[in-house]
Amino acid sequence: PSFHPPTTHHSLSKKYKYIQNHELKSLDINTKKCTQQTQSKHSRYSIKKPKMSDSEDSSSVSSSSSDEEITVAPPSKKQRVASAPLEIAPSVQSTDQQRKSSQASKQKIIILLDQARLETVKNRKGLFELLNCDDHRDLCKKKLKRDPKEFRPDIAHQELLALIDSPLNKSGSLQVYFRTNKNVLVEVNPSIRIPRTYKRFSGLMVQLLHKMKIKAGNTSTTLMKVIKGPFSQHLPPGARVYGMSCQGTLYSPNGLATALIPDEQTSDSPPVVFVIGAMAAGHITVEDHPYIEKMVSVSEYPLSGAAAISRILGGIENQWG
Known about the structure:
Elements: H1 9-44, E1 46-48, H2 54-59, E2 69-71, H3 95-104, E3 109-116, E4 120-122, E5 128-130, H4 137-143, H5 153-164, H6 167-170, E6 174-180, E7 185-188, H7 198-211, E8 213-215, E9 222-227, E10 240-250, H8 253-260, E11 272-277, E12 294-297, H9 305-320
Parallel strand pairs: 3-6, 3-11, 10-11, 10-12
Antiparallel strand pairs: 1-2, 4-5, 6-7, 7-9, 8-9
């Protein structure tokens, strides 16, 4: 059997001192570990000085040796990085203002599309449509007793696309009018976007012929409007008018621009007007437009209206750069 000696006051004091010394040693070990961890953290931000030459080392007596380290305290979370102040952008004149100011000093080329076949007809459902040779062939033959080949509103559509999409129009140097075979004169806003499909163009023309104007959806800008004729009332003073016909004087596109268009696009130069046909057959005559000075042509072959317009505008763009 094990023997347990009786506990006395002297033995208890020895035991208490042993426990106290053991706790102090553990505290010293923990503090050493903490100091080692903090030193390792600070060593991440330490920056070593570059080694100096002997001359520099002798001159800087007060400086520390090359092996010393400079410790930089890590940035605290509460510190904020100071950002640079925002700069105010300089005021620049908008492109719209620049375009308007430049357009005011430019001389525009005026184009009249004549004899456009734009007529409306009511279908069986009671809706109005643009009369054309594809959908209303029987109506043209039996009721109107006309040749269906004459009703070609797609020609005016193609010519308007060639005019409005041209760089000359986008630079503000073009003004377009068109006149129907019913003597309806229409002014076209240069900022309009002509519909790409014939079906949408047909609906647009029906709306124009019935309401006498077309406005933009979001703004009150008038894109097309019916104006009072004749066309000679809207010609600027001193305008030189030329008719396009395959029977006219033959010019190359660049030769036409050199002969008829002024070299510089200024407001002092006389405005130039071209009358181009928008019908399926026939050509422009001086009898219909007595203000025409000369009949001209840009090809020895009969061209479509859109092809002739592209050649004319291309020569003018090369002339004006």
